[in-house]
Amino acid sequence: MRFIVGYTSTPTGRDALALGARLAKAADAQLDLVLVLGRSEAVGTADYQAKLHATAEGWLAEAAATVPGDVRIQTHLIDAESFAEGLLDASRELEARFLVIGAAHGGLLGRVSTGSVAGALLHSAEVPVVLAPSGWASRPYAMTVPISRVSCAIGTRSGAQHLLEEAIGVTRRLGAPLRLLSLVALDRAGSVAPPEAVEAGREHAESLLAAATEVLPADIEVSTEVAAAPGVEAAVASIDWDPDEVVLLGSSRLASPKRLFLGATAAQMLRELPVPVVVVPSAPAK
Fold first, then answer.
1. DSSP state letter for 280
2. Within this chain, do residues 112 and 165 fall inside the same structural domain, yes or no?
3. Whether residue 124 sits in one domain with residue 17
4. If residue 234 lies in a helix (H) or strand (E), which one and from where to where?
5. Is 140 exposed, middle or buried (0-12, 13-18, 19+ CB in 10 A)?
6. I need a surface site. Which of 58, 113, 172, 268 has the fewest CB within 10 A?
7. φ, ψ for residue 35 (rounded to 5)?
8. Which of 138, 163, 193 represents a domain boundary (last residue)?
9. How many domains are contained in the chain?
10. Predicted model pTM
């Protein structure tokens, strides 16, 4: 299994590297560190291009040297029209299982903000995209602390079963507890959740719990939580998040088969989540 990190010699790139190394270590996967040079940067004399590639190779070597010794790692320098295109090409060529990137520059510390690269990947990637919150690399033991929990926000629309299966697979690979979230978004601030809405959310969560418990090993804890609040963002904010967990979100039902397409609800959640986010492509066509 291979995890790609989209690397740049910037705080954003170091955040992605730290999270990718932690995930690869937990899953016993190979880490592939990919740096993309845009083709517009590759113009100039042969001497200039040689110096540019040598500098980029040096950045990759320096980054690889910071990864714990028990994580298998390879570095790759790619020329492409854009950073996103290079990562998409690499994910296909290397048959990656996950693609890890950092938050956009200038976002809130500890939050996931999306820029042009993340935007492109979140609407076209064929593998799960993992988003590292801003400042992740500055956390103590950012590369080595185990993943404490996998949370998964699952609704009732089409694609929910596929997302549950992905969450179960990630939980198996990381050996972490699984928490299944059911969000009940109310229509307006100050609303009291109708008992039937909360009960429906609870029943949905319990059905997910039964399905996950049936297939996961007995030593992996599975729990559920129902959050009711006025709006998706408020529901997310009402949940207690462990700083060392990751959360899975699904793609919009409008996504093409096996493709990522970030929907409106997931985009709202992204703005509030204080932990790494894994956005999962839609299910294959039947």
1. P
2. no
3. yes
4. helix 232-237
5. exposed
6. 58
7. -115, 130
8. 138
9. 2
10. 0.89
Tell me which residue has tokens 């060529």: 93
Per-residue confidence of the chain (286 residues) as pLDDT tens digits? Answer: 999 999 999 999 999 999 999 999 999 999 999 999 986 665 667 788 888 889 999 999 999 999 999 999 999 999 999 999 999 999 999 999 999 999 877 666 778 878 889 889 999 999 999 999 999 999 888 898 999 999 998 877 767 888 888 999 999 999 999 998 887 764 444 455 566 766 777 787 788 778 888 888 888 898 988 887 778 888 899 999 999 999 999 888 777 888 888 888 888 888 899 999 999 998 876 6
User: In CATH, what number is assigned to the domain containing residue 235?
Assistant: 3.40.50.620
Name the nearest CA neighbour of 11 among 104, 149, 116.
Answer: 104
Q: How far apart are CA 260 and CA 99, in angstroms?
A: 12
154 and 74 together in one domain: no
Amino acid 276 reads P
Q: The domain containing residue 200 runs over which residues? A: 150-279
CB 179 within 8 A of CB 151: yes
